């Protein structure tokens, strides 16, 4: 057997003038441009609020995607585009969250590959990095262990995350809406039996945080595509529709007050101490009556005279009106709900104009914060309540009563249309008589 002969092919020396090939540096695809530039496949300078190309195109709506969300086929151990993973959260957190929730999601017919909804790991990353509520970020690093121990808390956090993603992505909100409804159903299903268990420190914290998130979701879940808000205001004219439709979110919010009282023994060692401190203390959560009412307008005092359940809410409204509209004061704005008694809710159910006016004013003050989660409720229900009051003919009443209501409606409109130097917000458009 003879030795094989090998031929080596080479181009070395054949053309010395040709430079040596060097691998080019990797350039990631630009994903931060606006939607019109992406559609035209042109480079976007990413100027905000309007890029240079869109500014030169009349009628072109420049819109950016704030964050990139992964598809259902993305790996659990890879963070979605646009997210920076919190160092305190373990890398296996999405797998754990998915493992905890999948049995409950399947039980309600959700969470399967055929379901077109935002995946759990995308919701978790958004909750850890971008979600912000009236009481701060619900998934702080120190709360991860507590969240894993209580599935109702995990489901409520991810439902709030899906709600926030839906409000951020008006172009395609359906996957986020499906995830929001599915996880909210799981949270409510698990929350009820958790309320019946004996309290300890961890259960107390989990129940409180879950209740806050459920209230947040109830307030933010508003269908703004119902048509004319004036037509929606007809729901306030019949008491038969008030309990389930008009004020169900408020009844749920008022349920937080007895829960706070029941868990008072665990307050000092709670991981939610920063939330309690941000809202003041227990005395500020449930403000005691004060002798001085100098800051309350005369027409407001006359409205609440002789009605005990209206006096504290009216005093609270006057204090909130003087509060600067900033994220740091968001908890101060929701103090109004802590002043409400069951009798106030009964007045709303019966269509009482005084209670309606007080609730509408508070919604208008909440609009001063101009947050994504409050905007829909403020614009829709604020206009509906005003429409109800005007249709009741309160301004056409004779004597001092008519003069009082004329002033009250004027104050109502001022709350909704007043501008603030600290917040650039859009004035709510209210129907005129």
TrEMBL record:
PROSITE patterns: ZN2_CY6_FUNGAL_1, ZN2_CY6_FUNGAL_2
Alphabetical UniProt keywords: Nucleus
Domain Zn(2)-C6 fungal-type: 33-64
Domain of life assignment: Eukaryota
One family name in Pfam for this protein: Zn_clus
Signal peptide: none
UniProt-recorded Gene Ontology molecular function terms: DNA-binding transcription activator activity, RNA polymerase II-specific; zinc ion binding
Protein name: Zn(2)-C6 fungal-type domain-containing protein
């Amino acid at each position: 057997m003879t030795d094989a002969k090998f031929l080596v092919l080479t181009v070395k020396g054949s053309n010395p003038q040709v430079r040596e090939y060097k691998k080019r540096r990797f350039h990631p695809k630009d994903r931060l441009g606006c939607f019109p530039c992406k559609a035209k496949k042109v480079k976007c300078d990413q100027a905000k609020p309007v890029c240079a190309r869109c500014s030169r195109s009349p009628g072109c709506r420049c819109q950016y995607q704030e964050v990139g969300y992964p598809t259902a086929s993305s790996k659990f151990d890879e963070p979605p585009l646009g997210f920076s993973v919190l160092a305190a959260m373990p890398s296996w957190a999405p797998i754990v969250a998915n493992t905890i929730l999948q049995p409950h999601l399947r039980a309600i017919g959700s969470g399967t590959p055929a379901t077109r909804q935002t995946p759990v790991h995308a919701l978790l990353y958004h909750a850890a990095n971008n979600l912000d509520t009236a009481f701060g970020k619900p998934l702080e690093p120190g709360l991860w262990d507590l969240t894993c121990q209580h599935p109702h808390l995990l489901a409520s956090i991810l439902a709030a995350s899906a709600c926030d993603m839906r409000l951020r992505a008006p172009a395609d909100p359906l996957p986020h809406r499906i995830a929001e409804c599915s996880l909210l159903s799981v949270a409510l299903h698990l929350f009820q039996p958790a309320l019946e268990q004996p309290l300890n420190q961890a259960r107390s914290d989990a129940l409180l945080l879950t209740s806050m998130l459920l209230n947040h979701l109830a307030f933010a879940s508003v269908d703004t595509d119902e048509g004319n808000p004036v037509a929606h205001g007809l729901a306030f004219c019949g008491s038969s529709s008030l309990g389930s439709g008009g004020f169900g979110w408020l009844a749920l919010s008022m349920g937080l007050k007895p829960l706070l009282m029941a868990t008072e023994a665990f307050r000092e060692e709670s991981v939610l101490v920063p939330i309690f401190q941000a809202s003041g203390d227990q005395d500020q959560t449930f403000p005691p009556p004060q002798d001085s009412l100098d800051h309350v307008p005369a027409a407001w005092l006359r409205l609440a005279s002789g009605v005990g359940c209206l006096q504290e809410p009216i005093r609270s409204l006057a204090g909130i009106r003087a509060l600067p509209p900033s994220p740091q004061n968001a908890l101060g704005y929701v103090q109004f709900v802590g002043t409400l008694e069951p009798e106030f809710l009964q007045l709303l159910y019966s269509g009482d104009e005084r209670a309606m006016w007080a609730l509408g004013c508070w919604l208008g003050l909440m609009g001063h914060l101009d947050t994504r989660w409050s905007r829909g409720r403020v614009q829709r229900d604020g206009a509906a309540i005003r429409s109800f009051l005007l249709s009741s003919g309160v301004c056409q009443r004779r004597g001092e009563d008519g003069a009082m209501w004329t002033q009250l409606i004027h104050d109502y409109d001022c709350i909704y249309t007043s501008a603030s130097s600290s917040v650039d917000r859009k004035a709510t458009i209210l129907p005129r008589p």
